[in-house]
Design brief:
By secondary structure, the protein is an alpha/beta fold. It folds into 2 domains: about 15-120 and about 230-325, 3-Layer(aba) Sandwich (Rossmann fold); about 130-230, DNA polymerase, domain 1. It contains 13 helices and 7 strands. The chain has a 7-stranded mixed sheet with strand order 3-2-1-4-5-7-6, with helices on both faces. Strand 1, helix 2 (about 50-60) and strand 2 (about 65-70) form a beta-alpha-beta unit. Helix 4 runs parallel beside helix 11 (about 230-245) and helix 7 packs across helix 10 (about 220-230). The protein is globular, with a radius of gyration of 21 Å. The protein starts with about 25 loop residues before the first helix and ends with a strand.
Length: about 325
């Protein structure tokens, strides 16, 4: 099992090109956030900085951009971004839910906030991080290499019922129970340390016909483990109200999600905040006094077009929702 803060988990090498770091739904994000010169922008999931570069351009030399990321590897990308940003920029390392909550508690205000959820290209393209089922690597999956929980720890210590629940809830894996059973049986012989070992066990646990035609057979289990390791849904549920608290009146919040679990959380939060009175229908007058705090900019999520998907296949599952502070 990788040790806490293992040195090989802290690569600081920038990619040779930007080809694998194309920001998803970039034009749509810029349109919805409508950044104006002089505003304060928060990119709460900076990653390799693709969206931040475009939003900084919209500031036209006046304003501030705050970049947030839990992955220490993002700092190298930020340093390069800062050199050509042309505006006041700042990097805050940490979980976006924690950082946004701290900023809100300190009454820091923003005009535009972006959350681009899930894994970034800079993480999945580095085999040593253990996020990909396509390459044999240490079974890690931590977005923050200093955190305690790893995928190996979950696979080797959680009981069969817990594993099946995670695979079913976070990966929507229909063969969750046989996969969990196979994992427990295999780890009794020797613990899992490599992604390749886990992929092999998953393949054997799934009925042969189901291994074809629905993408890689390990895709859903790897997604589930990544979400569990990094508490991604809990982070999102905590981050949304913190982001709302930071927005000035007229401020915009945009969220890109990549699977239905995330999108449902965002959809529900936006819908709840866009409601006014919550009194029962039979009440003749409103007594709750609740006013909407958000106005929806997207009734349905925006999706990438065929041209973008052809150019960047990783964009295929992206969903973008946005709202403005009422």
């Amino acid at each position: 099992m990788p040790s806490k803060g293992a040195p090989n988990m802290l690569p600081n090498v920038l990619p040779r090109t930007e080809a694998d770091h194309v920001p998803v739904l970039a034009a749509e994000v810029r349109e919805l956030l409508a950044v104006q010169p002089g505003e304060t922008v928060v990119d709460a999931t900076f990653g390799a900085g693709g969206h931040a570069r475009l939003l900084a351009q919209d500031l036209q030399g006046r304003g501030k951009l705050v970049a947030v990321d839990r992955d220490p590897g993002a700092k190298a990308y930020f340093d390069r971004f800062k050199a050509g940003a042309g505006v006041d920029v700042r990097f805050l390392r940490g979980d976006f839910a924690v950082v946004l909550s701290q900023l809100a508690a300190n009454d820091v205000k923003a005009d535009a906030i972006l959350l681009d959820l899930g894994i970034s290209s800079m993480q999945v393209d580095r085999p040593e991080r253990g996020f990909s089922y396509a390459t044999d690597a240490p079974l890690d999956m931590r977005m923050d290499p200093s955190s305690e929980q790893t995928a190996a720890a979950i696979v080797n210590t959680w009981d069969e019922k817990e594993l099946a629940t995670v695979f079913r809830r976070y990966g929507e894996e229909r063969f969750a129970t046989p996969i969990a059973r196979a994992i427990v049986r295999r780890r009794a012989e020797r613990p899992f340390t490599r992604t390749g070992d886990l992929v092999d066990v998953i393949k054997l646990a799934i009925p042969t016909p189901a291994r074809f035609g629905e993408g890689h057979p390990a895709k859903r289990v790897f997604q589930a483990l990544r979400i569990a390791v990094n508490d991604e849904l809990g982070q999102l549920e905590a981050a949304l109200p913190a982001a709302l608290a930071m927005l000035r009146t007229g401020g915009r919040l945009a969220v890109i999600s990549f699977h239905s679990l995330e999108d449902r959380i965002v959809k529900r939060f936006f819908a709840d905040q866009a409601k006014g009175c919550t009194c029962p229908p039979e009440f003749p007058v409103c007594v709750c006094g609740k006013e909407p705090t958000l106005r929806l900019l997207t009734r349905k999520p925006m999706r990438p077009g065929a041209r973008e998907i052809d150019a960047n296949p990783r964009a295929a599952s992206a969903r973008l929702r946005a709202a403005v502070r009422a």
